[in-house]
């Protein structure tokens, strides 16, 4: 082993101990015998081998050991590609927006698109459409599963919200809660026992839904909770929290039957604000009222 | 005091009192309060007619008067809220019938028709009216007893007395405390034979609407609790309300605390009918507090727990339910989901609505804007203080102003009520000839039956109504019945809203 190799090995060891990066001072304090000229050549070699990343921190430079995986993935790539690749890698499964890549890599727009295209064709990265903003594309490594905030979770199929699916689940959850709700009424063991029996936890509902087999995708408890919450907003269920912190749901009836206003055509009439004593829309020749009275 | 209210009041006055009173009523509604002279001028009616109309209005408590600026003449003012009560009359009668039997119903009916009357005249008129009616079995004694129990329960009260104060030319109406009368059966029987004008009784009575409204309110609350939990909880709510009347003002936003001990006593008395309630009173109280829509709240632990009835909160809850139903029917259940979501979160941004409501973005936006357009929700822009950058982003928060929305709903009720009444009038006008004919045939047949004429002749008369005519009449009757049911239902709806508006917000 030559002397320069020995020094490089030493520097590598120091860097491995400090994953946050090391400065030239750290090296000199660890290897006091090293001269600055030797250190500079050693570091230059290491940088050339792409074992280190170089960062500037205040006045001094900080060297950080690169992770081995990222090094392997882009064999035969030029410098720009590597920079872009690293940025995308850092973003993980949340992905990174093209504008952010441009700002952080300092690359020209045209050059960047070229690089991205290259990487994409090599199947190293992929572009994923974001559900929140249909035109926003984010890039992430090819082998990663996009995050929930990007795909929208179980409710999205190719960036489209599946409202029918949600509706079906909504109905099924309600049916499950209804099966239990009657236990509250006149329960011979007292109302509190009855109430407990009429409650269902989200996990129970999830099990019921899974057993039904209506969903192709696997639904988490979290997903079922979102569905159950829509039931609460529909006024068909109420929720409470158990002492252990889990949420429970119960089907309820509305406090009053449909009031008088909506039992007559006027309550649901789209023209109610245009209805007058004279003119084209009058109660005397109202078509809706005619139908209702027949 | 809205335009829609004016329209409803106008058609109701027309239906019950005819065109002249309607004109005077309209005039008063439009101008607030004014003296007779001005009413004559603007309506163009003869002075005598105006005075007569005002007399009717005052008698039925549909108008009030107060001294004008010069203290010599009176200014008259319409009380539109009282006019609306006409729609509620059938409900009052039903309430009486189910609670006190048909004698009470007849008394209240007569009293409602005459607006006010002395006890003697009232009872004698009712007794005379149904003297020959054997099905109802109305005796003077039953009538007298019912009258006294009604007065004790507060369903009827003494009418205010006109008092002429010193230094004033105009009398003022002063409310007097109701003293339950001690009616003598023998004097009543004697009075039966006398002329009504000779009867010396100067204590006048009238119906106490407020007492009825308390009953209606209780009924609504009990029913709501029964729907939410079960009948036993409803029964417990009834006990709570009864206790509330003992200690608090009837319409108090929050009642004085009721100790659970007394409730337990009440449940023990009803143990035979509701064993479950008796067995699990404490549990029911807990469930009622936690799941009963917040009608009841526990506020202390003294004497086994102290409970209050939160009438104001209950009214709010019920108005919310009314609005929910209205939104469901008008814009669909998805809009209702958004509506309730906004209520739940109090203030919410558009993006958050989409996330929580689980709807397609486009649909969600559309429904939100529809709700905004129909005034069910409001928008509150929150502008950040001018920042250095040119881009000042504003946050738009959706929220519900319950008072405003309830007002919108009330306006819709007024409008619908007006439409229903107007439509009923229209139906009657269209078939006026037939209805008139039917009435005549019926009275002729009735007369013939009384005289005992042969069946052959009666049939002949009845056959003047041809089968097609009968079919039309049947249709009209069915429609009119449907319309009057709708009126009653609308009134129930209005009752909830009025109850809500009773408390300051």
Structural account:
The complex is a heterodimer of chains A (294) and B (505). Chain A is built from 15 helices and eleven strands. In chain A, helix 9 (163-181) crosses helix 12 and helix 11 crosses helix 12. In chain A, 49% of the residues lie in helices and 14% in strands. The mean pLDDT of chain A is 81. Chain B has helices at 3-17, 19-31, 36-43, 47-59, 80-84, 89-100, 102-114, 119-129, 140-153, 185-193, 209-228, 231-247, 260-269, 275-279, 281-291, 311-331, 333-345, 350-357, 361-373, 402-430, 432-451, 455-462, 467-502; strands spanning 63-67, 74-78, 117-118, 156-158, 161-164, 171-174, 204-207, 258-259, 296-300, 306-309, 348-349, 378-383, 394-399. Chain B contains 23 helices and 13 strands. The mean pLDDT of chain B is 88. Chain B is globular. Chain B starts with a helix and ends with a helix. Helix content of chain B is 64%, strand content 10%.
SSE order and pairing:
The complex is a heterodimer of chains A (about 290) and B (about 500).
Chain A: H1 3-17, E1 22-23, H2 24-30, H3 36-48, E2 52-57, E3 60-65, H4 68-73, H5 79-91, E4 96-97, H6 98-105, H7 109-121, E5 125-129, E6 137-141, H8 148-151, E7 156-157, E8 160-161, H9 163-181, H10 191-198, E9 200-201, H11 202-212, H12 221-233, E10 237-241, E11 247-251, H13 260-263, H14 265-268, H15 287-293
Antiparallel strand pairs in A: 1-3, 2-3, 4-6, 5-6, 7-8, 9-11, 10-11
Helix pairs in contact in A: 1-3, 5-7, 9-12, 11-12
Chain B: H1 3-17, H2 19-31, H3 36-43, H4 47-59, E1 63-67, E2 74-78, H5 80-84, H6 89-100, H7 102-114, E3 117-118, H8 119-129, H9 140-153, E4 156-158, E5 161-164, E6 171-174, H10 185-193, E7 204-207, H11 209-228, H12 231-247, E8 258-259, H13 260-269, H14 275-279, H15 281-291, E9 296-300, E10 306-309, H16 311-331, H17 333-345, E11 348-349, H18 350-357, H19 361-373, E12 378-383, E13 394-399, H20 402-430, H21 432-451, H22 455-462, H23 467-502
Antiparallel strand pairs in B: 1-2, 3-7, 4-7, 5-6, 8-10, 9-10, 11-13, 12-13
């Amino acid at each position: 082993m030559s002397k320069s190799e020995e020094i490089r090995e030493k520097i590598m060891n120091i860097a491995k101990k400090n994953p946050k990066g090391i400065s030239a001072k750290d090296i000199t304090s660890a290897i006091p015998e090293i001269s600055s000229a030797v250190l500079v050549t050693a570091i230059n070699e290491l940088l050339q081998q792409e074992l280190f990343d170089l960062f500037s921190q205040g006045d001094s430079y900080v060297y950080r050991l690169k992770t081995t995986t990222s090094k392997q993935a882009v064999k035969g790539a030029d410098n720009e590609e590597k920079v872009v690749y690293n940025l995308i890698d850092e973003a993980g499964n949340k992905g990174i927006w093209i504008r952010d890549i441009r700002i952080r890599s300092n690359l020209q727009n045209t050059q960047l698109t070229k690089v991205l295209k290259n990487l994409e064709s090599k199947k190293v990265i992929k572009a994923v459409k974001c559900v929140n903003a249909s035109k926003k594309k984010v890039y992430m490594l090819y082998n990663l599963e996009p995050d929930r905030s990007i795909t929208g979770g179980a409710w999205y199929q190719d960036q489209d919200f599946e409202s029918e699916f949600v509706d079906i689940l909504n109905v099924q959850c309600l049916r499950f809660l209804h099966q239990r709700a009657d236990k509250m009424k006149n329960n011979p063991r007292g109302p509190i026992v009855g109430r407990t029996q009429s409650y269902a936890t989200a996990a129970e509902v999830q099990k019921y839904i899974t057993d039904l087999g209506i969903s192709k995708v696997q639904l988490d408890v979290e997903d079922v909770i979102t569905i159950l919450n829509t039931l609460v907003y529909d006024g068909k269920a109420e929720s409470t929290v158990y002492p252990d912190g889990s949420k429970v749901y119960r089907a309820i009836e509305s406090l009053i039957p449909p009031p008088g206003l909506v039992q007559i055509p006027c309550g649901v009439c789209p023209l109610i604000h245009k209805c007058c004593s004279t003119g084209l829309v009058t109660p005397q020749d109202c078509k809706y009222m005619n139908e209702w009275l027949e | 005091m809205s335009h829609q209210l004016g329209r409803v009041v106008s058609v109701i006055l027309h239906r019950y009192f005819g065109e002249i009173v309607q004109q005077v009523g309209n005039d008063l509604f439009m101008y607030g309060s004014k003296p007779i002279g001005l009413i004559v001028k603007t309506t163009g009616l003869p002075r005598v007619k105006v005075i007569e109309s005002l007399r009717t209005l005052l008698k039925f408590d549909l108008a009030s008067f107060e001294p004008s600026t010069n203290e010599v003449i009176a200014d008259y003012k319409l009380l539109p809220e009282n006019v609306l009560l006409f729609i509620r009359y059938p409900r009052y009668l039903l309430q009486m019938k189910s609670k006190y039997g048909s004698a009470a119903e007849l008394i209240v009916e007569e009293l409602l028709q005459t607006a006010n009357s002395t006890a003697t005249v009232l009872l004698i008129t009712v007794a005379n009216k149904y003297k020959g009616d054997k099905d109802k079995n109305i005796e003077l004694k039953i009538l007298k007893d019912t009258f006294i129990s009604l007065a004790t329960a507060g369903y009827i009260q003494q009418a205010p007395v006109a008092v002429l104060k010193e230094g004033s030319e105009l009398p003022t109406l002063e409310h007097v405390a109701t003293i339950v009368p001690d009616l003598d059966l023998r004097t009543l029987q004697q009075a039966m034979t006398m002329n009504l004008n000779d009867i010396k009784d100067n204590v006048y009575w009238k119906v106490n609407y407020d007492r009825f409204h308390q009953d209606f309110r209780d009924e609504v609350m009990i029913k709501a609790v029964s729907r939410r939990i079960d009948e036993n909880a409803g029964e417990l709510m009834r006990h709570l309300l009864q206790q509330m009347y003992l200690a608090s003002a009837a319409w108090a936003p929050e009642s004085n605390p009721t100790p659970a001990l007394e409730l337990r006593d009440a449940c023990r008395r009803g143990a035979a009918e509701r064993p479950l309630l008796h067995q699990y009173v404490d549990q029911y109280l807990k469930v009622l507090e936690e799941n009963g829509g917040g009608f009841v709240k526990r506020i202390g632990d003294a004497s086994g727990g102290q409970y209050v009835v939160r009438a104001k909160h209950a009214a709010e809850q019920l108005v919310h339910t009314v609005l929910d139903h209205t939104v469901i029917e008008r814009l669909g259940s998805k809009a209702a989901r958004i509506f309730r979501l906004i209520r739940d979160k109090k203030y919410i941004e558009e993006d958050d609505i989409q996330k929580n409501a689980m709807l397609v973005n486009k649909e969600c936006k559309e429904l939100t804007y529809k709700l905004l357009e129909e005034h069910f929700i409001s928008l509150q822009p929150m502008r950040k203080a001018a920042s250095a950058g040119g881009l000042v982003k504003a946050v738009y928060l959706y929220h519900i102003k319950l008072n405003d929305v309830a007002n919108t709903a009330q306006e819709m009720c007024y409008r619908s009520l007006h439409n229903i009444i107007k439509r009923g009038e229209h139906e009657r006008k269209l078939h006026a000839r037939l209805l008139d004919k039917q009435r005549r045939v019926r009275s002729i047949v009735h007369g013939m039956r009384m005289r005992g004429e042969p069946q052959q002749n009666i049939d002949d008369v009845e056959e003047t109504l041809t089968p097609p005519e009968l079919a039309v009449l049947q249709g009209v009757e069915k429609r009119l019945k449907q319309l009057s049911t709708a009126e009653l239902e609308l009134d129930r709806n209005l009752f909830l809203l009025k109850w809500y508006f009773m408390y300051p917000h």
